[in-house]
Known about the structure:
Elements: H1 11-26, E1 53-56, H2 64-74, E2 78-83, E3 98-102, H3 108-122, E4 127-130, H4 145-173, E5 176-181, H5 194-214, E6 219-226, H6 233-241, H7 254-260, H8 263-266, H9 272-283, E7 291-294, H10 298-304, H11 309-320
Parallel strand pairs: 1-2, 1-4, 2-3, 4-5, 5-6, 6-7
The chain binds NADP nicotinamide-adenine-dinucleotide phosphate (NAP).
Residues 57-60, 62-65, 83-85, 88, 103-106, 131-134, 154, 158, 181, 183, 226, 228-229, 231-233, 236, 264, 269 line the site of NADP nicotinamide-adenine-dinucleotide phosphate.
Amino acid sequence: MAKPNGAHQSALQHTLIYKVEVCLPLGRCMKKAFLPCCLSSSSCNSGSMDKTVVLITGCSEGGIGHALARAFAARDCQVVATSRSLSSMADLKNDPRFFLQELDVLSDGSVVQSVANAIERFGRIDVLVNNAGVLCVGPIAEVPLSSMQRTFETNVFGAMRLIQAVVPHMASGRKGTVANVGSITVQAPGPWSGVYTATKAALHSLTDSLRLELKPLGIDVINIVPGGTKSNIANSAIASYSRMPEWKLYGPYEAGIRARATLSQGMKPAPTEAFAKEAVARILKKNPPAWFSYGRYSTIFSILHYMPLFFKDFMWRRIMKL
Ligand SMILES: NC(=O)c1ccc[n+]([C@@H]2O[C@H](COP(=O)([O-])OP(=O)(O)OC[C@H]3O[C@@H](n4cnc5c(N)ncnc54)[C@H](OP(=O)(O)O)[C@@H]3O)[C@@H](O)[C@H]2O)c1
């Protein structure tokens, strides 16, 4: 069983993981016989069977998507690695395990084209990982609506665009796995990242409904929920924060608000490769768990999820000096 983030695993953490990985899938034990052995836990390629084809969004070098691409390839999968720019995946270019595609989750045309290219090349997509995402930092009362919309467009509708493009292909083969990358912030929403957290809360909710709706089509759905994990997310967040207007009501809090952009990277984030290896192991399981969380503070947030609101408010006020 995986150990989230090193040596600090408590008995409680064991219990949580047991609940998440063992109890949740128990109700799903009537797995259909036609489920491919290429999605077994030992390896994604078995004998003469074709490789499992995995499409991942947001695979820029240094991020979680890139590490996921490498971890799937290490498990003998064929990876359709996508990002907004091929240059951000240049290191994967000459490796036949990767089929590189430029894909912007905001664009219908881009998504349709990349999915068509993957289907034409490999005949199917077995696993879809909706990883692409952006952070949005700022006080909800003042973040421009255009920034809010772009965050929802990327984190929520971008994932839905991929799902609607890929699921019909999976359904025709009556097999497949969809993995959506959420966030632990949903379990205890704090200040200054409310828009981002709302997008991930929407994604978590959609993921839970999708899991039920896609079950009859033979498709599994898993929510991959990172805690703090090393990536480029803070750099991107700082870049978009620098385009925010000057806050009118929150001048005294500016430093704290800006610091939220780098929070996940500031406090010993989990190594990207470790996150990816553990996530891929869950996604490729014959009966994937409904939920997999890993990374810095993932255990603490799992506990906070069950705490009363007054406690969470108290905690955030103390931490953020509100
Ligand atoms: N790192 C953490 O601590 C953490 C914690 C919780 C959740 N997450 C989630 O993990 C996922 C991966 O993030 P990360 O931490 O690896 O951050 P990252 O290094 O910034 O990677 C984000 C990826 O999404 C891509 N992307 C952004 N907008 C896109 C668009 N319109 N179309 C296609 N791709 C787009 C980025 O492309 P560009 O390189 O072109 O910008 C990049 O490849 C995100 O969903 C994030 O919310 C991360």
